[in-house]
Amino acid sequence: MPTRSTEEWIRLSLRTPGILIFGMVLAPCGWILDLTATVAPNWRTLHPTTLPPDEFIQQGIWDICRATSTSTREECNLQDTEYFNQQIINVAQGLMVASLIVTLIGLAVAIPGVRCWKDRPNWVVAGLGGLLIFLSGVMTIIPIAWYTHILEDITSVTALTDVRVGYCIILGYIGGIFEILGGFVMFIGICRCCGGKNRGETRVDEVMGDRFSHQKPPPRRVNVPTLDRARSSASSVPYSRDSMDDDVILCYFTSEQKLHCLVQLR
After folding, report:
1. From the centroid of its chain, how far is CA 220?
2. Which CA distances in Å does 230 have to 39, 219, 227?
3. Are 177 and 137 in contact (CB under 8 A)?
4. Which residues are within 8 A (CB) of 18 and not within 5 positions of it... i.e. 6 or more apart?
5. Which domain holds residue 147?
6. Which of 83, 166, 176, 255 would be a feasible disulfide site paired with 141, CB 3.0-4.6 Å?
């Protein structure tokens, strides 16, 4: 009879594994934050002395706007060829757009691999989707970190008197980290580690052992020795010791309440 291999694994629940849920939640959240950081014109804020104290300039990678702290009204589409000719602006435009596209591709690949209605997910497909999401997060962090590093060195036609970090930088960092974490956690599902806990799997032998460990073991057979009683020498019935061991004694009561015993010889 063939024995079951100890390398066979089984999932005890049809629920989606936690690592896939973690990645499928963080990835869309990171994509939304990256989209906001890409289109919003607030990578840095300038407070030049040539403007009134309540006015400031917001510069993004696609547009430049003038806003006031006392009103929500903004004047956008300001021209600044010196700013948009910077290398960091061109790199940020390309990487941010590429990151958004790669995230969508990663989600499209990961969703068929998750498939929580099947016995087990397609870990290879889900892991490849997680790898794409991880790379999209890296493509977001690169321009965000580079822009932050040279924040005050990026030239502009506007005098750089008071330069501050815009909210797009914060959203970009958070979105990129979400995608990196979500994609990495999904990717580690390709390999089984921590005793299969990352996949929610358990060895078949361990499951079978736990299932029958609470049952009592079968009773042990005990051989009871025969009782060799001494025969009385006064008996009037001749017999041999060897043959008596094989005899059967049948005793019964008659209607007169008398006991009769018969010896059946074998």
Report:
1. 46
2. 109, 33, 10
3. yes
4. 200
5. 15-42+86-194
6. 176
